[in-house]
Design goal:
The chain has about 375 residues and is α/β, with parallel strands linked by helices. The protein has two domains: about 1-40, no CATH class; about 45-370, Purple Acid Phosphatase, chain A, domain 2 (4-Layer Sandwich). It has helices spanning about 60-65, 85-90, 120-125, 140-155, 165-170, 210-220, 245-255, 350, 360-370, and strands at about 10-15, 20-25, 30-35, 45-55, 90-95, 130, 160, 175-180, 180-190, 225-230, 260-265, 270-275, 280-285, 290, 300-310, 315-330, 335-340. Strands 4, 5, 6, 7, 14, 15, 16 and 17 form an eight-stranded mixed sheet that branches. β6, α4 (about 140-155) and β7 (about 160) form a beta-alpha-beta unit. Residues about 1-25 and about 30-35 have low confidence and may be disordered.
Length: about 375
Amino acid sequence: MALPLNIQSKILMYCAAGLILFFSCANGPKVIQIETECIPSAPPVNRVTLCAVGDNLIHIEIINDSRTENGGFDFSPLYTYIKPQIKNADIAFINMETISAGVEFGISGYPKFNAPIELGDAVLDVGFNVINQATNHSLDKGEAALRKMLAFWESKKTICIGAFSSEKKRSTPVIIEKNNITFGFLSYTYGTNNEALPDNSPYLVSLIDTKVMKREIAALRPLCDYLVVSMHWGEEYRTIPNVSQEKLAQFLAEQNVDLVLGHHPHVLEEVRLIKRPDNSYMPVYFSLGNFISAQKNPETMLGGMAHVIIEKNETSTRTVLYELIPLVTHYEKNDKGFRVIPLADYTEELAVRHGIGPLNIEKIRKKFTLIKEGKW
């Protein structure tokens, strides 16, 4: 059948019966139906972006630099340069290396850390929504201070992992749902320095214990599409994972964990893929380094932000991208102007003014590449 030459318009419609063409012609509308198979639509894909940073290590120099003229504290400038990246993530994880229980417990830096409560407000304002509180400094100011910190996060309806105010809280699964993907979170630390867990509150901080971890992972695994485990482990200032970290990472892969976020060494360590029993791979960020600190070693000025994209379709949930984005802790002479800045935005002008002396940006870039590849 020949089509009219004076077609004024045409509209295509797809239906179960096939392809129907409507033609507007001078003699009125004509309809042609062509039997054909419908083009199946692609299965829906749900996507979540997760970012994670390392040690939010608040030394007394940072606290003093954050004092305001009216006697208060404002920590928001610390995170100005990184805020857009954090805000854009669906899930944003931070390791709160130090608690911020407020002035009633004594404001202090190393070795017994405690920051003003305003630090917690600043962290939330940046956009972090998963807070790790299982670190070796969790009990620096005792049980009461940690409970004050936990009450703060709870009052803000923020997910806090690794430390718990009750046995019931410890046994309640931590699950977040974003874009139709359910995420489970667990967190563990190698210890709490010289402060033992209270006899009447052994649940207070999650310690690394493979028997306990295996039991908790087994309980949480069926309840979530994607399981993230935070690990406070390793050796300070060591840029290569130690044997203990490697064994624990293998153990976590065997439990079908999806992602491991490591911290504590205060320097970057490499990222690896470890094979799981189902033949998929688990990304392990062995150490994200310092997010921000007042340490003086140049290596501690280089940290990293994990950037992970997770997708879920009708049959599976998987990591489709994992990256490590370099960050620089910047401050100037007399311990002023503390900021965390993406390396991509870090200028020669800033490097010259750094408080520990001029930073060699090119050297930092090369160091980052070597560490990321496990060649440092």
